[in-house]
Amino acid sequence: MGIRSAMLLCVCALLAACGGRGAEVISTGDRYVSNRAVVTDYRLGIGDKVRLTVFREPDMSGEFTVGPNGTVALPLIGATPAVGRRVEEVAAEAQARYGDGYLRSPQVNMEVTGFRPFFILGEVTAPGQFPYSIGLTAFNAIATAQGFTPRADRYIVHIRREGATVEENYQLTPDLRVYPGDTIRVGERFF
Hints:
Blueprint: H1 3-17, E1 25-26, E2 49-54, E3 62-65, E4 71-74, E5 78-81, H2 87-99, E6 108-114, E7 118-122, E8 128-130, H3 138-144, E9 152-160, E10 168-171, E11 183-188
Parallel strand pairs: 1-10, 7-11
Antiparallel strand pairs: 2-3, 2-6, 4-5, 7-8, 9-10, 9-11
């Protein structure tokens, strides 16, 4: 291999590494749905906070957190599986368990009051952990971390969904949605 071929190979390798542009970049899919869309299939995860309301039972009502073991510790009935389940499913199980010897015809309601945080690192001014809010976009997340650094790649962002082992490259647009528990990495541009 001549010097020219070696230099061309080095330049190609450098360009492939620039800002993650050598890997596939996703620009469509569920993360690009309009923010006006309602979250209908939210699944609970570790760190989420829920409010349980048991009608006419104020001592059993309150706010609870999904613990590291994936359950919510509820009054009288104890650990109730929550991770990966919709809040309605957890409420239905709690209602059934309360009706099984604890309360006569219990009426139970549950809602999410606090989402697990998201994380952002890389070429942002203040990387770290931040509270999630419904409708959060990648641009909102970057703004929460006090914006881009001067060397930030402003076209591609790398996101690793909670529980995933690899991050995916996404085209950075105003509609790119962030989910609770996501880890966002803003890469560095080289040119």
